[in-house]
Every structure is written in structure tokens, then in C-alpha cells.
Design a protein that fits this description.
globular, Rossmann fold, 33% helix
């Protein structure tokens, strides 16, 4: 088993969670950090328990002894940094969003394919206990065939939250879906499985002074029309004043699931009361609670085998961003249905 050297791009809040998760695996170690600000190598190495070399020059960073580049920088920087990493023949871990528009996402995928490097996008909710258990329930056919699903993201990203200072701007935030709700939309696509025909989306924003600095609508609702006839709904709400809530409601021909509760005709569960599932819920927006380690371990194992990343490869993730940017186009055009072929 190869031990991979990982270089981190951007040393902010999420980078700390990435470093801890990577170093906790048996497959990789963070050995370098690129930052626009000068960092103290001795202090950083002591904090993370191993030698870390710091760079302020991105080209020098890419030429260093690293196998994987983990991009945790500002979203608008993702495209150029990821393309440069691919051209330097480095595998890539990329925080969400991939990029701030569809063409930049496609540029990243094209650069990776051209240079034969693998990519992993941080849609880590797919590796959470909640969705591993939910997917197992679906794969066992306990809900039958799904025809309706709603997966919603409720998280008030206000001044008390780490990313607020840059999240409020259109340049790095983009939309309620792009900045955070993408996790819910991606999870909706995971459970539904079918190809998307079109999306219809509308958006609005809170009148609270707390969220006034936002330059874009901070609440959106998207209806997803699947080619096989299924329908789905995704609310992306980043201006709510409530505890974090990742809402899931799936309806199938043999039963339903509501968050961590379910009813199944196949199992003859009590139709007058929900049966409870034992699973770790997605109940926090704090990056320290995200299941990065499970996702990164899967990525490193795939690299060992020369395979694409399961579930969250660049190509898998590109599909989710196609749906997302179609939804944002629909919302910008007053809720007009938008086909994926239009983005």
C-alpha cells in the first residue's frame, strides 16, 4: 500500500478538518500547505503532529514532493488551482463547490482526464452514517420503487459561522444551492438514481437584518423532474433561524422513510407508527463533524487500485453540478423549467 503525500491549498477553517481526517487514515499524510499568507512551519508541524512544509508560491508547491493536492481555498479560485494541479499530474481532492459556473467545472474534469489524474469532490454526505444506512435500506428494496423524494438543507449561515465573511458575496457564495444546499441536492440525486430531465426553481431571501449582507437569494426551492417519471424536491435555506436540519423524506411503492424513521410493507412494520433506524444523523454544519475520513479513505483505496473514486468522482459530481446550475438558471429566469441540455 502506497503512502500518499498530500498538499493542502488554503489554510482556513475547513483545511484543519481535512488535515485531521487525512492524517487519521493509514494511507496518507499532509506534508505541505500552500497559503497566500506566510505560515510558521514549525508551529504548523507541531500543531498537526508531523513535518509540514509551507509555500506561498503555487508553482513551487506543485513541484514539491506531493502526490495529491487537496483544494480548500476560496470557491472562485478552484478552477485555476485544480487545472494547474491536474497539469502537474497531481490527483485532486476538491472542496465543494467544484467551481462557480458550469464551464469551469467542465474545465476541471477535462484537465483531469487529459492528464490521467483522479479526482474527489467533497460531497461527503454520501459517506455519512445517515446516507450509508438510507442507501442500504433502498438497495434492499424495503421501500420498493421510489417515486417521490425531498431532501432539504436548513442551516442559518450568519455572522456566527466561519464562512459568513466571504459567503455573503456573489463571487464566492453564488447561490443558496451552490454555497451549501448542494449537499442536499446531491443526496437527492443519490437516492433517486434516475437521470434528470429538467428542473424548476424559485428563490427568495429573509427580511432579517442578520442576513442583509447577502448579495444573492438565500432560500430556494427546486423541483427535479426525472426522465423515468420520478419527482423530487430540494429546499436550500441558508437564512433560517433554527438548529441545523438535513431533512429527508422518501416515498416508495412499499414504504416511506422520514429522516431516521421508516415504514415498510415488506417488513410488515406497524403502519400506525414509524419504526426507528439506529444511525448517525447529519445534524451539524461544523466541518469537524463531517465524515471526511471515510470519504478520503475510499479515495486513497481507489488510487491504490487505479480506479475512479466511488460515489464522488469528478464525473459523478459533475452530474450534480449540471442539475444545480440548471436550477440556478431556472430561478434567475423566474422559475422557467430548464433542461440539463441548456447548461
Amino acid at each position: 500500500m502506497k503512502k500518499y503525500n498530500v498538499g493542502i491549498v488554503g489554510y482556513g477553517w475547513v483545511a484543519g478538518a481535512h488535515i485531521a481526517a487525512i492524517n487519521a487514515t493509514a494511507h496518507a499524510q499532509v506534508t505541505a500547505v500552500f497559503s497566500s499568507r506566510k505560515l510558521d512551519e514549525a508551529e504548523l508541524s507541531a500543531k498537526h503532529g508531523s513535518p509540514i512544509k509551507c509555500f506561498t508560491d503555487y508553482d513551487a508547491f506543485l513541484k514539491s514532493n506531493i502526490d495529491i493536492v487537496d483544494i480548500c481555498s476560496m470557491p472562485a479560485q478552484h478552477r485555476n488551482q485544480a487545472v494547474a494541479a491536474a497539469e502537474a499530474k497531481k490527483h485532486i481532492i476538491l472542496e465543494k463547490p467544484m467551481a462557480m459556473n458550469m464551464q469551469d467545472c467542465r474545465d476541471i474534469v477535462a484537465a483531469a482526464e487529459k492528464n490521467k489524474v483522479k479526482g474527489c469532490v467533497c460531497f461527503e454526505c454520501r459517506y455519512s452514517g445517515q446516507f450509508v444506512s438510507t442507501k442500504a435500506l433502498l438497495d434492499e428494496g424495503l421501500l420498493g420503487d421510489l417515486h417521490y423524494a425531498e431532501v432539504d438543507y436548513y442551516h442559518g449561515i450568519g455572522p456566527w459561522y466561519g464562512q459568513f465573511r466571504w459567503n455573503v458575496g456573489k463571487e464566492h457564495g453564488g447561490s443558496a444551492l451552490l454555497t451549501a444546499g448542494c449537499h442536499a441536492l446531491d443526496a437527492l440525486l443519490l437516492v433517486m438514481g434516475d437521470e434528470v430531465e429538467s428542473v424548476t426553481s424559485i428563490s427568495t431571501k429573509s427580511k432579517s437584518d442578520i442576513f442583509a449582507p447577502y448579495e444573492y437569494d438565500t432560500s430556494s426551492v427546486t423541483l427535479v423532474h426525472f426522465k423515468g417519471g420520478k419527482i423530487g424536491k430540494c429546499a436550500a435555506i441558508v437564512d433560517c433561524l433554527q438548529p441545523y436540519y438535513f431533512h429527508v423524506h422518501l416515498v416508495g411503492s412499499q414504504g416511506s422513510l422520514l429522516d431516521d424513521k421508516f415504514h415498510s410493507m415488506k417488513l410488515h412494520t406497524n403502519k400506525h407508527a414509524w419504526s426507528k433506524l439506529a444511525m448517525k444523523m447529519l445534524d451539524s454544519g461544523d466541518v469537524s463533524d463531517h465524515p471526511y475520513q471515510s470519504q478520503f479513505e475510499a479515495f486513497f483505496q481507489a488510487l491504490d487500485k487505479g480506479q475512479e473514486m466511488p460515489l464522488t468522482s469528478f464525473k459523478d459530481s459533475l452530474r450534480s453540478f449540471e442539475v444545480l446550475f440548471a436550477a440556478d438558471k431556472s430561478a434567475a429566469e423566474g422559475g422557467r423549467p430548464v433542461k440539463l441540455s441548456e447548461v
